[in-house]
Amino acid sequence: MKKLNIVIAMALGLSAISAQADVANAEMLAQKYATIAKIVNTGYEGPSAIAGKIFFNRKIKGAHDKEVACASCHTANPADEGKHIVTGKAIRPLSPAVNSKRFNDRDKVEDKFTEHCKDVVGTDCLPEEKANFIAYLLTEKTPSAKK
Amino acid sequence: MQYVWDPFVRVFHWALVAAFVVAFYTHASEWDRLTHVWAGYAAGCLLLARIIWGLTKTGYACFCSFPFDPKHAIRHIYHVLKGNAKRYIGHNPAGSLVIYAMLATGLTAVGSGWLVYNEGWLIDQPDLLQALHKYSTWGWLALVIMHVVGVVTESILHKDNLILAMITGCKRVTRKGEKQARQNIA
């Protein structure tokens, strides 16, 4: 029994380390964007989860006639599975704490930011908006209870 | 004049061009995702139909009229550069190679796109599939450029309009061409 406990503890410890590593990548990315943001905007104080949350939920009438927010597809809780508003397809959770594949690959993150910012805002987002965005996603760790 | 491309081949060719252009133009935006997907599926169906046609038909549409032969293709390029290339009424050996490459990359692009769109279905490897879709489509574009360069080169060399031939189905047979065609047989 003691042995089993040790094994379980080790397994939990390992999973905690790997989960930490995934989130660490996202944190590093937020800091990278913040560093760039500070060069352009000297008044910027660093990633703000609150500003990120407002940005995530703000409906924007961009290049298209429809008013949309990030939350339109990713839902108000990015730890939940989303739903594409055009195709109706399911979108895997965006929060790095829930989905370890999110915010891992820097090039991919930058590509997706550029594409999706063009879709929603009409132009690429600012580095500070990207830093805030990731900071906010890092705070959303629990999927909503299923109805 | 010689009748070369049957109506199916011509309609297939320009429909595939249209599907490719639409899919390419709509690839980045999520707003256009459905258009992109349907253009891709259309391209996939066209490719499959062309393969069935190539396996069942005779004449210039048949795969047997332009075999897959890399060695022969390299030799043909060498002769084009030397300026004494044979004239082929259908695809020349280098062109044939590009055709087969386009068929293969096209099917890869459509197949991977299908799996990317239906994420989690059959092969649940989004990153791998996205990379495959990206590189196969850009590879396909590179092959299309090679195809167009080849068409323009051959049009100049043989003083024939091959683009027009894909619309009317007929190729001009010049006296020089006829002479060469006879040499090809001899």
Structural write-up:
The complex is a heterodimer of chains A (147) and B (186). Chain A is mostly helical. Chain A has five helices and four strands; from the N terminus they run ααββαββαα. In chain A, the strands form two sheets. A two-stranded antiparallel ribbon of chain A has the order 1-2. Chain A has a two-stranded antiparallel sheet with strand order 3-4. The model of chain A has no long low-confidence stretch (mean pLDDT 86). Chain B has 186 residues and is mostly helical. Helix content of chain B is 70%, strand content 2%. Chain B contains seven helices and two strands; from the N terminus they run βααααααβα. Chain B has a two-stranded antiparallel sheet with strand order 1-2. In chain B, helix 1 packs antiparallel against helix 2, helix 2 packs across helix 4 and helix 4 runs antiparallel to helix 5. In chain B, 22% of the residues are buried. The chains are: A mainly alpha (147), B mainly alpha (186).
The rounded distance between the terminal residues' Cα atoms of chain A is 38 Å
What's the order of the H and E elements of chain B? EHHHHHHEH
Helix content of chain B: over 70%
The helix/strand class of chain B is: mainly alpha
Rg of chain A over CA atoms, rounded to whole Å, is: 17 Å
> What class would the helix/strand composition of chain A place it in?
mainly alpha
Largest interface: A-B, 15 and 12 residues
Quantity of strands of chain B, as a count: 2
Poorly predicted regions of chain A: none
How many β-strands of chain A, per DSSP?
Answer: 4
**Count of helix runs of chain B:** 7
Largest sheet data of chain B: 2 strands, antiparallel
Anisotropy-based shape of chain A: globular
**What gyration radius of chain B follows from the Cα positions, in whole Å?**
18 Å
Tell me the major beta sheet of chain A.
2 strands, antiparallel
Overall residue-averaged pLDDT value of chain B: 90
What is the straight-line distance between the termini of chain B?
Answer: 21 Å
* Mean pLDDT, all residues of chain A: 86
